[in-house]
Each structure stands twice: as C-alpha cells, then as structure tokens.
Design brief:
The protein has about 130 residues and is mostly beta strands. It has one domain: Metal Binding Protein, Guanine Nucleotide Exchange Factor, Chain A (Beta Complex). The strands form 2 sheets. A 7-stranded mixed sheet has the order 6-7-8-9-4-3-10, with helices on one face. A 3-stranded antiparallel sheet has the order 1-2-5, with no helix packed on it. A hairpin with a 2-residue loop joins β6 and β7. It is globular.
Length: about 130
C-alpha cells in the first residue's frame, strides 16, 4: 500500500499493517493533528519504506524519545516512532488506499475533547450539509 502527504512531495509504501488500527485521543496527538483523535497502526520497520521526498521530511520530539515525522511543505504528519521499538506508528489517514481493516479500539479516552460526542443525534452528510 502506498501513502503520501497532502501535497504529494513525500511518499512511502507499507507491505502490511502489523498492528490494529486505533484512534488515539491523547493531548499530544490531538494537538499535533489538530483533530479530536488520530487513527494509527503499527508497521514493522522491515515493512515500511520511504519512496520519495525524504529531504522534505521534518521531525519533532513531542515527548522524550518520541519523534513525529511530518512534511515540511504541507505539514502532514505521516509516522511517529521511538527509535528503540521495532515498528513505526503509521498515520492511517495518509494511506492512499483502503487498508481493508477497521479500527479495533479508542485509546487515551481520558484525554478526549469534551465537545466530541459520537452520537446518532449528529447528522452525517455525504458531502456539504444540505442547502450549502
């Protein structure tokens, strides 16, 4: 499966997702992605390859030993890693194709944004809301 940043300058490829997809609600993920949560999955290093744009890849150490890698052009976060671990933490939304599996859990829900409610009362629109 191939993936890329928003502007397409950086590209990567993964052979498979080696760990389940989870939605992380921790404060650092919420801030880094400007979102209520981020969907991630572990990929063993031998199953992950950068294809292009490595010169535009930047990193930020968001907590001791944890690097978040992002595109210096468009800001898309692509992976995070702890160098001692055998896997990288792939940001699933940057895949260019469907990985064919569904998320299995939410984590760090103690950090959830109070305004986030996953409720049937909130309309789901296929695109813009009606009349827009």
């Amino acid at each position: 499966m191939k993936g890329s940043c928003l502007c397409g300058v950086i590209g990567y490829e993964v052979d498979q997702l080696d760990m389940p997809i989870s939605h992380c609600h921790c404060r650092t993920c919420r801030k880094a992605h400007a979102a209520a949560f981020v969907s991630s999955a572990g990929v063993m290093r031998e199953h992950f390859r950068w294809l292009k744009g490595l010169e535009k890849l930047s990193a930020f150490e968001s907590s001791p030993g944890k690097l978040r890698h992002f595109c210096s052009v468009c800001g898309s976060h692509l992976v995070a890693e702890r160098l001692a671990q055998p896997h990288v933490i792939l940001r699933v939304a940057t895949l260019d194709e469907d990985p064919g599996i569904k998320p299995t859990m939410h984590i760090w829900c103690s950090h959830s944004a109070p305004w986030l409610e996953d409720s049937d009362d909130i309309p789901f629109n296929q695109e813009w809301q009606p009349g827009r």
